[in-house]
Amino acid sequence: xxxxxxxxxxxxxxxxxxxxxxxxxxxxxxxxxxxxxxxxxxxxxxxxxxxxxxxxxxxxxxxxxxxxxxxxxxxxxxxxxxxxxxxxxxxxxxxxxxxxxxxxxxxxxxxxxxxxxxxxxxxxxxxxxxxxxxxxxxxxxxxxxxxxxxxxxxxxxxxxxxxxxxxxxxxxxxxxxxxxxxxxxxxxxxxxxxxxxxxxxxxxxxxxxxxxxxxxxxxxxxxxxxxxxxxxxxxxxxxxxxxxxxxxxxxxxxxxxxxxxxxxxxxxxxxxxxxxxxxxxxxxxxxxxxxxxxxxxxxxxxxxxxxxxxxxxxxxxxxxxxxxxxxxxxxxxxxxxxxxxxxxxxxxxxxxxxxx
Length: 356
Hints:
11 helices, alpha/beta, 7-stranded mixed beta sheet, Aspartate Aminotransferase, domain 2, 5-stranded mixed beta sheet, Aspartate Aminotransferase, domain 1, 39% helix
């Protein structure tokens, strides 16, 4: 089977080899207080810094999931006010977490499948955290990185939080222009689920320190406790050691291939998929504005038959695509275009779609 599902997704080609090595080296039994784990954390940290070109003041924390980071970021970085750009189910859930925590959470909401005009965004002065989703997995809409950078230039005061769960490592963010970003490894990094990665700068740590003692900031997984342990390349409690090991190895593989090569290859695969959709009589791109079409999660309307029939027919050929999200389950398919999927595999999928 080749998995074009948007998470969990196709495993990166080298994962099987790294799993065998992990068994041989008994990584599964490694204590998170051991020197071996500290060395592993440092290896992952070094690789991710190079991959994302992180400024020196950024720290890298590990959590159980990206979903957890919605809550942790709001607990640690807001006392009252957050502002959310909502254009899909996952950006909506970030907003939902703010409401559950009792924040005064305001929003700019556009219809499902649409992006944002930066010039139309008006953020209240009291906003502490500006939350946006760089790549909306549910709808296949991306926010171009230049728009994120422009938003920071327009509003330099609020902390800028970027959900890049299905955009990393493709999205070439300038991390001098954001304060925190986060992702989980089962999408663009082609790894088993169960590990979230939180990239946090000094502005965030200063804000968290100012709130410390005035409200609940997350116990074991407050920024304070995470950073205290991070300085020794440790974690507050037992982490997903195997997940961190595999991430470190896959990041090394990506660096060996070259992140520019990965991004160019991803763009070319996306162009082939969107080109097919635009010419097809059975499918059409869901996102209308080309600049807002995600290169990593391509969402297609199915025009003449139930999406389930398409998914079933492809599965019989060993090709697994995702269904539409939520209310769009029966009308759409979602195709993950992550680095683990090769150009030849994308060509195979396009050929199978044409036969339908």
